[in-house]
Design a protein that fits this description.
With about 450 residues, this protein is an alpha/beta fold. Helix content is about 50%, strand content about 15%. It has 17 helices and 12 strands. Strands 9-8-7-6-10-11-12 form a 7-stranded mixed beta sheet. A 5-stranded mixed beta sheet has the order 1-2-4-3-5, with helices on both faces. Strand 6 (about 230-235), helix 9 and strand 7 (about 255-260) form a beta-alpha-beta unit. Helix 12 packs parallel to helix 13 (about 350-355) and helix 16 packs across helix 17. The structure holds NADPH dihydro-nicotinamide-adenine-dinucleotide phosphate and (2Z)-2-iminopentanedioic acid.
Length: about 450
């Protein structure tokens, strides 16, 4: 079957999973011609196999709230593809979580992880649990119940979850504590652990740092640097924090940042005290931006996205489909030169199509946000040899990995010396690697 037929079939079969279909369509648009030109891929039916997860585990997560009432959520783990290594990818705790969202995330994770150069398969999981407004003991009881239901499907060489939206060091701690109690093993079955109990240095910063390292490499290709560049960031979470921290350190100016409740404008750029306070707010489970605006006297615009602020670089770091056609047209009108994704699939399909025709240089999340999972892979290595590397060593490896991902995208996505299709480059490089491995391993 040719790629087009497979695509049409998939669109019909999964109309009820729009995010998953969107991620597949974006991927197919770059690789269909390669699939059709390779008889051996068609023989092994790699494309049809690539879009079906190995397994989706769905389970009930009962827990008791502080008022003594029994609550129920639905938990999931999508083990998508383990051809290159153990399933690997984060857990998301957010009320919007459903099968379509987790399938799109797990699908993209397969290709992202292959770009890291590390031996990692792809997966994703989570629950429709909302950590907002929950007490620490409620989050603990929920996380423990989640692990009770899924632990036997995980393993340091089988499936290794980590954090994502709503899951940070605290939740990983509660999940890991329960896993350890059940198995009596202290092993690298989760990443994003605390530094004193098996975590890696730089993992909290890794996604944001990695995105900035990727951006630096894009700029260098155009004989430019990040110094004094004006950056606008969306999202007020872990990834955004890492982006702001590294951008500030390298002399760029983060002049606007948004949270779920609106955005602030900081014309002189966010400074160290602001970055430290961001962390304080987050550790209090308060990822809204209004208290931040109030504390420092920033102009706060409620319920709006930040793209109306003219700048050089846009870095969406909140969630999928946060940038639509209107937003991308605003970026074009405001003369942005780069859009580097920290979040997974933050641009709608229509926004991506406009971007591709524009002069904005665009880095897709599966390449530019791969630093988080890359350092997760390095955490697994440290756990396996029972050692903890110094921050400089991890940071240096992260920088090299991001440079290599960038250069791989250029190699496979070069249109002219000036114009690189990074999305096509990332898709093609990762597709070929996984398709070849699937052929070599047999059906
Ligand atoms: P956090 O939970 O730390 O922060 C996410 C932020 O985005 C919160 O402020 C959250 O607010 C907001 N957000 C979430 N959903 C929505 C929504 N539907 N509309 C508006 N705002 C929203 O998550 P991370 O920083 O870890 O993740 C951010 C993005 O980066 C996600 O796309 C994630 O998949 C991706 N990513 C994360 C990595 C990691 O290692 N953590 C690695 C690579 C990518 P609220 O809860 O109120 O909605
Ligand atoms: O989307 C992602 O790459 C993550 N949430 C991080 C996954 C991981 O295993 O570190």
């Amino acid at each position: 079957m040719k790629a087009n037929e497979i695509i049409t079939k998939l669109q019909i079969k999964y109309t009820h999973e729009p995010e998953f279909v969107q991620a597949c369509m974006e991927f197919f648009s770059s690789i269909a011609h390669i699939y059709d030109a390779h008889e051996e891929y068609q023989q092994a039916n790699v494309l049809e196999r690539m879009v079906v997860p190995d397994r989706i585990i769905t389970f009930q997560v009962p827990w008791i709230n502080d008022a003594g009432k029994v609550q129920v959520n639905t938990g999931y783990r999508v083990q998508f593809n383990n051809v290159l290594g153990p399933y690997k990818g984060g857990l998301r705790f957010h009320p919007s979580v459903n099968v379509s969202i987790l399938k799109f995330l797990a699908f993209e994770q397969v290709f992202k992880n292959s770009l890291t150069t590390l031996p990692l398969g792809g997966g994703k999981g989570g629950a429709d649990f909302d950590p907002k407004g929950k007490s620490k003991t409620e989050i603990m009881r929920f996380s423990q119940s989640f692990m009770l239901r899924i632990w036997s499907d995980l393993g340091q060489n089988i499936d290794v979850p980590a954090g994502d939206i709503g899951v940070g060091k605290q939740e990983i701690g509660f999940l890991y504590g329960m896993y350890k109690r059940l198995t009596r093993e202290h092993v690298g079955v989760l990443t994003g652990k605390g530094i004193d109990w098996g975590g890696s240095r730089i993992r909290p910063e890794a996604t944001g740092y990695g995105a900035i390292y990727f951006l630096e490499r894009m700029l260098a290709l155009q004989k430019d640097t990040i110094t004094q560049k004006r950056i606008v960031v969306s999202g007020f979470g872990n990834v955004a924090w890492g982006v702001v921290k590294k951008a500030h350190e390298l002399g760029a100016l983060v002049i606007a940042i948004s949270g779920p409740d609106g955005f602030i404008h900081a014309p002189n750029g966010l400074q160290q005290e602001h970055i430290d306070f961001m962390l304080e707010l987050r550790s209090g489970n308060l990822d809204i931006i209004k208290p931040f605006a109030d504390k420092f006297g920033f102009v706060f615009t409620p319920d709006k996205k930040p793209w109306s602020i003219p700048a050089d670089i846009a870095m969406p770091c909140a969630t999928q489909n946060e940038i639509n056609e209107y937003d991308v047209n605003q970026l074009i009108e405001n003369n942005y030169s780069y859009l580097v994704e920290g979040a997974n699939m933050p641009c709608t399909q229509a926004a991506q199509e406009i971007l591709k025709k524009s002069s904005i240089r665009y880095a897709p999340g599966k390449a530019s946000n791969a630093g988080g999972v890359a350092v997760s892979g390095l955490e697994m290595t440290q756990n396996a040899v029972r050692y903890t590397w110094a921050a400089e060593g991890v940071d240096d490896k992260l920088r090299r990995i991001m440079a290599e991902i960038h250069d791989t995208c250029v190699l496979h996505g070069k249109i002219s010396p000036q114009k690189i299709d990074y999305a096509a480059g990332a898709n093609i490089a990762s597709f070929v690697k996984i398709a070849n491995a699937m052929c070599e391993l047999g059906v």
